[in-house]
Amino acid sequence: MATDKISVGILGLGRSGWGIHAKGLEDLPEQFTVAAVADPMPERQQEAREKFGCETYDTPEQLIAESDVELVTIATPSHTHAALAQQALAAGKHVVVEKPMAGSVAEIDELIAASEKSGTIITAFQNQRLDPSFLAVKDVFDSGRIGEPVLIRRTVHRFQRRNDWQTLRGHGGGELPNTALHFLDQLLTLVPVEMPVELLADLRQLNSAGDAEDHVKLTIRPESGPVLDLESSMVVAAPQESWFVVGTKGTISGTPGELTVKWTDLDALPDLEANPNTPEGRAYGNGETYEWQTETIDVPSPNQRTQGYYSKLYDTIRNGAELFVTPASVRRVAEVVDRARAQSNFA
């Protein structure tokens, strides 16, 4: 197995570029080295030189054209993602794009074609697939304790009025591509990529500045399997629990830090037969009782999602492992986003 490091160039040293990508890569010194950064702010360039001893550039275009980095991470504002990814792929770089990868399915199709032409990898930074609470929920599914999942409800509630660029559609802003996209991606990994889904979407611009939505409600019904329900909103003064999952034998509920599983063993009960006659004593139901079991799962902190994501990418680039976040899976999420925007007149 190859062990040589992958040199990375980071485009944009804002909250994501510096606080997430650079920080995560710093924790993987045997696999990656931050060799170059691009940011228009001199003080950010200086900070990067001091921490990484790397090359610095004023613009992303300069880094792509002049640096010999192997992997480019794009952490610039959303509306610049597709064009910069095209340039990096044309220069023969592997590319990680902060979510959203692009502004539409059509742009993602162009990036997939460019990736195939260059023979390099393009992937999106969907590190919430490694969120410990999501992985814990999937483990409960696999155990069979709650039976067949019927409804998976994911909520991201808070009350906040924003006025930054993320409130502007022209900059790729909005609650859907900014926050909800991570959790939409989580839920759609539970549905085969080729399976059709029905969608009911409600996007609204309520309290924040700009013209982008700050409230998202999506209900997704796959051809088979559980209904997926997502609420991601900045207008909820009394937040509900992050997870609520209904199964045929029990439920999962809770927060990213603690989940409660409650289930019963239906196989231990006698079979039921429908009775068409009038119930005796006007009593409905069969009067049976259930022996409930409960488990509380303490979910670990999600502070290793970025490192886990990049470690998987390293294994793909150096050792030929399957790509963790495939362009096809990103495209399917973007398709739902496009449909949601069209339904709510936010296209």
UniProtKB/TrEMBL annotation:
Coiled-coil ranges (or none): none
Location of the GFO/IDH/MocA-like oxidoreductase domain: 134-252
Domain Gfo/Idh/MocA-like oxidoreductase N-terminal stretches: 6-123
One Pfam family of this chain: GFO_IDH_MocA_C3
Gene Ontology molecular functions: nucleotide binding
Lineage: superkingdom: Bacteria
Record-linked SUPFAM superfamilies: Glyceraldehyde-3-phosphate dehydrogenase-like, C-terminal domain (SSF55347), NAD(P)-binding Rossmann-fold domains (SSF51735)
Official protein name in the record: Gfo/Idh/MocA family oxidoreductase
